Amino acid sequence: MKRYRTLATNALHAGERPEDARGAVVTPIFQSANFLQREEENYHDVRYMRLSNSPNHQVLGARIAALEGTEDALVATSGMAAITAAILSHVHTGEHLLAHKTLYGGSQGFLDHDAPKLGLSVTSVDFSAPDTWKAALRPTTRAFYVEGITNPLMEVGELHAVVEFCREHGLISLIDNTIPTPVNFRPTEIGFDLILHSATKYYNGHSDIVAGIVAGSHDRIRRVTELLNHLGGSLDAHACFLLERGMKTLAVRMAHHNQSALRLATVLERTDGVTRVNYPGLASNPGNIRAAALFKGCSGMLSIYVHSSSRADRFFERVQIPRHAASLGSVESLVVRPARSTHLGMEKSRREALGVTDTLIRISVGLEDIEELIDDFTQALA
Fold first, then answer.
1. What is the pLDDT of residues 203-236, one digit of tens each?
2. CB-based contact 220:189 (threshold 8 Å)
3. 165 lies in which domain range?
4. DSSP strand pairing (274-278 vs 334-336)
5. Residue 72 belongs to a domain with what CATH number?
6. pLDDT single digits (tens) 96-106
7. Residue-wise burial string across 312-323, b where 16 or more C-beta atoms lie within 10 A, e elsewhere
């Protein structure tokens, strides 16, 4: 499979298979559940849509691997399908994993409620405090799970130290890199074993599909694929087509997201009624030095604390351009209160202790004119 020198070119052309498409410039939708047999010797190589090996899946896997700088990659039905399959294919009943204490609500819900039912134990640690990790180790510890930039507090941890710790203790390092994207950060370059994404977000970028990604070595992706095949987490052909289309503009979209989010964060830091801005691109942010060393840009996500819950209510009533909706990473700006959406399933006292309060507003900066967007935020927060 041909790979190109730059991410932008790979996003457009890596993995193309014109021989499968009768010369079509755009990969067609192969809307077929099954394909002609080729005397396959392995069940997972049988040409069948549920086994994620249609031409649409093959193009995506090759292209994503090129963007991530990994040997292999796969797509799944959602980010959570990718995350859970990656964890469960490497951490088994009776085993233990470490995870950062502040994660996306869906991931945290799985670790809190579902993993224990499957016999997995989890210890929450602070990924910014390497000196505390060793105390959390057990003989059965198998993995360490973190996020590149956390959702919704936009924290950046000691990611180099996570990789070194995992190597020292024989652990598998897993990172959800949804918010930075490979445009800003390629975790494999510092040694992470498995890279995960909700491709619903920036990879696709248009709020019209749900999908997930796992990238890593051939061996690790084979293990994830086999579990995902049994669980039935195959992405349908039309969603594959839309994801490939969205990926083609990833590089140019992220450049705009990076620039606009930094500009908005800088303005909001000086805005009355805003008590704190969480954005690692700001010099005032605790993770700024780490972000500057790791990332080419800090992506299009930020969150803010306002003075009171009632002020947050008024903001959502008055803001005009962003859509008040869950998800992130799309061409349109989105705003949401995590305490009432992504983290609603978490016990109130726990989410508030983590900083996910009713005064926290998460902002996904889209591709609108940034000055017009700033004017809208300013009036809504006044």
1. 999 999 999 999 999 999 999 999 999 999 999 9
2. no
3. 7-247
4. unpaired
5. 3.40.640.10
6. 999 999 999 99
7. bebbeeebebbb
